[in-house]
């Protein structure tokens, strides 16, 4: 009977398995809940056709899991338990910041007694994949979790494939720690960055069922474009609209989902676009604007409009440009010195009283004035 059940499970794996990623490699697997009732810990059973190991990282339905148990091999497939990583933790090595999916807990389930063991106040345990990066973690190394600083007090490598850290709450370094983004000692080694991420395809788009739309993103640091930024994409409903980490969107079923793009190492920097899967395409125009978010007084900067129809850039449309003060006061603290249907040159006013004030550049779609986009520009000192 056991062998027959195993044979049936292998059949279901081949016929009903889902595509997941194990250590970044796409694999076929069958995943089910480990228990029949809802509990605080998200634990599942994985059955894979290829070899798996304790400590392997599993990406399943936009969530990250860690294989936490021994592996059962029946000759046809491999079976184990996976547990959802509930936090993304940054460790800082003299300015080299690396992020890790981790299981962090303030209490532990005892296998021997079947009871829950609570740790003392200010103590946590953390489980990470054992790899070349995590082996560099040292005793007393600081990190942040939920905007609170901790240090490593113990390192346990007795579980093959997993590193277990015992950690204690410590004091915040107000001068060095980036508390908001959960990075210890960040400002000790780097200057403050102002990142921005824009999905160039606009704020909404349609995609045909089983068709693909490529999302294009612009990432800047203090207004300067970043080449080849590391980004992560996710869908609010992968059954309606799916997306991979190259920004390729596919319509699956009729409906609507939000696609979110994040900077991988700065996940608070993000952009979003509403994607609707449709059977018949209609025009849905959006505008994006590129150009410097600041202009020095008395100097000029160029801005370009990009017009998209259902997320794909088109070149048969144009915009009308206008400029105003952010607070709608007069006179306007700048001027549009040149413009076409797709670009404009803005010159900041020369008065020192304009320093750190804001003007707003507006682009209005010529064929549909209800579609507009504004860009706020700060006027800066020459020095």
Automatic annotation (TrEMBL):
Name under which the protein is recorded: BIG2 domain-containing protein
Domain (BIG2) spans 218-261
> Which Pfam family, any one, appears in the UniProt record?
Big_2
Q: Which InterPro entries match?
A: Big_2, Invasin/intimin_cell_adhesion
Query: What is the scientific name of the source organism?
Result: Paenibacillus agricola
């Amino acid at each position: 009977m056991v062998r027959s059940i195993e044979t049936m499970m292998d059949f279901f794996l081949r016929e009903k398995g889902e595509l997941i990623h194990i250590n970044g490699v796409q694999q076929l697997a069958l995943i089910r809940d480990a228990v029949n009732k809802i509990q605080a810990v998200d634990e599942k059973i994985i059955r894979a056709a290829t070899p798996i190991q304790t400590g392997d990282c599993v990406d399943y339905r936009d969530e990250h899991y860690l294989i936490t148990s021994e592996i059962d091999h029946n000759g046809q497939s491999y079976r184990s338990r996976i547990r959802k990583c509930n936090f993304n933790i940054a460790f800082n090595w003299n300015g080299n910041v690396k992020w890790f999916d981790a299981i962090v807990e303030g209490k532990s389930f005892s296998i021997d007694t079947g009871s829950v063991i609570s740790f003392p106040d200010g103590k946590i345990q953390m489980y990470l994949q054992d790899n070349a990066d995590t082996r560099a973690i040292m005793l007393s190394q600081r990190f942040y979790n939920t905007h609170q600083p901790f240090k490593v007090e113990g390192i346990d490598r007795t579980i093959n494939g997993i590193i277990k850290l015992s950690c204690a709450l410590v004091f915040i370094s107000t001068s060095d720690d980036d508390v908001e983004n959960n990075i210890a000692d960040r400002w000790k080694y780097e200057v403050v960055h102002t990142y921005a991420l824009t999905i160039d395809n606009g704020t909404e788009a349609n995609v045909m069922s089983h068709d693909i739309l490529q999302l294009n993103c612009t990432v800047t640091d203090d207004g300067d474009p970043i080449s080849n930024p590391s980004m992560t994409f996710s869908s609010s409903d992968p059954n309606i609209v799916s997306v991979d980490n190259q920004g390729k969107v596919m319509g699956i079923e009729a409906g609507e989902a939000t696609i979110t793009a994040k900077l991988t190492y700065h996940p608070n920097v993000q952009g979003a676009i509403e994607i609707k899967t449709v059977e018949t395409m209609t025009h849905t125009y959006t505008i994006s604007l590129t150009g410097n978010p600041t202009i020095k007084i008395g100097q000029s900067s160029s801005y370009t409009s990009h017009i998209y129809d259902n997320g794909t850039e088109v070149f048969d449309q144009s915009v009308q440009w206008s400029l105003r003060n952010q607070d709608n006061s007069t006179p306007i603290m700048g001027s549009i010195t040149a413009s076409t249907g797709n670009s404009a040159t803005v010159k900041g006013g020369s008065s020192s009283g304009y320093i750190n004030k804001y003007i707003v550049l507006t682009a209005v779609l010529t064929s549909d004035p209800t579609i507009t986009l504004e860009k706020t520009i700060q006027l800066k000192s020459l020095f």
